[in-house]
Amino acid sequence: MLKPIVIMFIAMSMIPAGDLSGKLMTEGMGVHPSFVALSRFVLGALIVAPLAPHGTWALLADWRVWLRACSIAFGVLAIQTALRTEALADVFAAFFVGPIISFALSALFLREPAGWLRSLLMLAGFCGVLLVVRPGVGGSPGLIWALVAGSCYGTFLTTSRWLSHIGSPLQLTATQLVASAVIVAPFSLPHLPAFTWPIAGLSLSSAAFSMGGNLLLLYVYARAESTKMAPLVYFQLIAATGLGWLVFNELPDLYTITGLFVILAAGLTSASLRR
């Protein structure tokens, strides 16, 4: 169990780094969120495609691969829209409705064991998300996009487990990136920015961090039940909060800090339940 936890920690630290690069573009350079999504998928595909083994592209004939790609494509669009106006830690805290969605979908559709205690902990995590978003009582409207992104990501996590048997993690990553690029392109092409080296560099780092994190996540999900691994994505909260403080000097308010602690405590406690 220790090795998957270490790999998940690395993966979940890389994903917020990729979104940080996107935030630097959308907030500081006026780049449209859809371009951030497109550049991430296109550059990621260019990096992975030469490494894809024989038979990879045949997987694109499976409609389930496109369903999985839709979930991550619209999730990236939504989270980049949220990051355009919201603090990194706040967005990722609201985004963590995702593991709850994944937990419920995996138990409901994949028939994976859940257990009443882990279910209660997931409910506690959802309460932590509500503390961050505070719908109708002071929460920012931009965080609704983070909830949409989290719901898409939860679907992505479950479909990753669902499809883990049809191809290797590298094959699934390659098809995910290509299909997502095709899905996002119509939204992105009208918003292409003028070329600059900072935008090019941030686009590359966004793609590399995101692709690497999700590739590692696939390796873990191919070897462990998603009901046990899903809570470990809460490690992203640590990285997101630290990066937001270091780069933007963003510190969450008291409600958000409380929500973060509730989410993190519930997630890590759930992860510790091995039986």
TrEMBL record:
SUPFAM superfamilies documented for this protein: Multidrug resistance efflux transporter EmrE
InterPro entries: AA-Vitamin_Transporters, EamA_dom, EmrE-like
Main localization, broad class: membrane
Protein's UniProt keywords contain Transmembrane helix: yes
Sorted UniProt keywords: Membrane, Transmembrane, Transmembrane helix
Spans through the membrane: 33-53, 65-83, 89-110, 117-137, 143-163, 170-189, 195-220, 232-248, 254-273
Boundaries of every EamA domain copy: 141-266
Coiled coil regions in record: none
Keyword Ribonucleoprotein: no
Location relative to the cell: Membrane
Source domain of life: Bacteria
Similarity remark: Belongs to the EamA transporter family.
Protein name from the UniProt record: DMT family transporter
Record organism: Arenibacterium halophilum
